[in-house]
DNA sequence: ATCGTTGTCGGGAACGTTACCAAAAAGGCT
DNA sequence: AGCCTTTTTGGTAACGTTCCCGACAACGAT
């Protein structure tokens, strides 16, 4: 069973395709009776306009593309839910892609999206992405772009991020106030923007409380599965921290597991606080203190910005970075 | 900056579009020198064929669609990773959609996918889906379909599922062997196929060990956020179970939280085992026993089946259901 | 010299849709 | 009666690509 087209309708009703087309979109310049005839027949035959033909003609698709490193990451899947909520409301479809932290995949995804004529792109950069030519290129092609969470200073676009500095500051300060002195910070590769923001927050808290910054207590950790475990073991052995502040979902879990595997008591020997969106943080042993990012709201805000520029409701000349507050959830792991 | 087309190349090189087209796809009947000329110019100008035009012409897109209830569910995001792994290898893009457990959204997603001429669809049914006309319709249109995990008996298609019966059987049996008598089963809405499979496994284990099946110990629970909590509270109060076996990620977490909130000791008072793909099961308090489904492998297998039928490497006349073994991971919550 | 063959290319239609330009009929105006 | 609007419809090009068909030259064979 093939899909019915405007031509089929035209033939069946002895009309021209242009008449049918206009009737279907309710043009004023068409006889009400003809219009009714066409609409009824279309309904009966379950006619749906071919979106591909429309895209080819109009150079748009009524869909926006989203690229995230990993949907298995709770933060990103929640952000996507925020994006979908507003996009769906405003009549846009959302096409989801994963870069799997690979720069190559990210490029390929971008290629595919612009080829498919998405009306805009929302992206959170992969951990390997060090240059952003692929992004400025689609901007040159006129594709609206909003970067969220994993942003880069090198790209001029609207951006939405959590207040990483503030979150990290509060987390570190809390550890300090509970009497910890050797506060380690385990974080993502240093080329990520969020990494630096969080590091700065951490440093600021130390400085405020007169604790000298000790480079040896900071570890950058890539995305390889076994890497985190090794990094944390080495850190524990050589630096003997009395607190750990981690910078992401993934790292929090890996570190948490590693510390427990070593038989170190949390929070007695080492206090722990993570920057994460885990929904199970309160069910862990012990319950994990977290800095939570408003993932859904970040997605929602980013999508709104994007759709506003697409629909020309936003001044495209001025770009803007929206920062959304984080929230600190203290539980027993950092007591 | 607009994308360059075959016409542009033709004009620039004083050739016809047909010649350029053939040169680009390396047709034998084209002068090697002309071919070289065209290819070099195309490369220089960064030419990429317009996939939309191709789709319109060829009625296909080199993309497959995936519809899952919720990507925030670990099982599904892992399954998607399995799907992407094989699709990427075989030159197909993967378009991800969420039904959010809504039948309407599922229909709308299907519509969008066939409109966009995906070459095949992988779907895991929403919790609200009771009839599958939207699926048989796309089959009639010739779109290959594979259903995975959340399958339905009413649709005739290739299917991939975990061995739910076996997993449930082993879980229940383990609880029985550890001396539990009143084993509750909290599960998803009864119209889901997996629900029944797991229920049957649970029943079979009871029967094997001479424990009469008690309907009051079984609870079906929808997808509303607060529902699980109420259901489990009511169950605990009225039935006093000494063990709970839950049928999904979501339910396991909600129940786990509810039981702990009530101050009931796990596993002392109530043993607990979940059917889940949580990556943090071993970090919970106490570590959670689970029946894990090979999500990645399920996705991989389903995608392979789909791509095989798309590429005509598979006999489309015979349909098949592949069942993949589950694995039971015993931890302290069920001691 | 004529013919068929081979190699190389261009023209046009088609995929489904919309937009522009005509065209025909009907009606109103002077 | 002649002309100009208005209403309603049809024809065609265009979006980017491929594919079928035909054209034309060069070439060897008869």
Short key terms for the protein model shown above:
homodimer; 335 residues; 434 Repressor (Amino-terminal Domain); Rossmann fold; 16% strand; elongated; DNA-binding
What features would you describe in this structure?
- 2 copies of one chain form a homodimer.
- Chain A is α/β, with parallel strands linked by helices and 335 residues long.
- The first copy, chain A, has 3 domains: 6-49, 434 Repressor (Amino-terminal Domain); 57-161 and 295-324, 3-Layer(aba) Sandwich (Rossmann fold), CATH 3.40.50.2300; 164-293 and 328-334, 3-Layer(aba) Sandwich (Rossmann fold), CATH 3.40.50.2300.
- Chain A contains 12 helices and 12 strands.
- Chain A has helices at residues 6-13, 17-24, 32-44, 51-58, 74-89, 103-115, 133-140, 164-177, 193-208, 227-239, 249-261, 295-310, and strands at 63-68, 93-98, 120-123, 145-148, 158-162, 183-187, 218-220, 243-246, 271-275, 289-292, 321-324, 327-329.
- In chain A, the strands form 2 sheets. In chain A, strands 2-1-3-4-5-11 form a 6-stranded parallel beta sheet, sandwiched between helices. A 6-stranded mixed beta sheet of chain A has the order 7-6-8-9-10-12, sandwiched between helices.
- In chain A, helix 1 (6-13) crosses helix 2 and helix 2 crosses helix 3 (32-44).
- The first copy, chain A, is elongated.
- The model of chain A has no long low-confidence stretch (mean pLDDT 93).
- Chain A binds a DNA duplex (30 and 30 nucleotides) through helix 2 and helix 4.
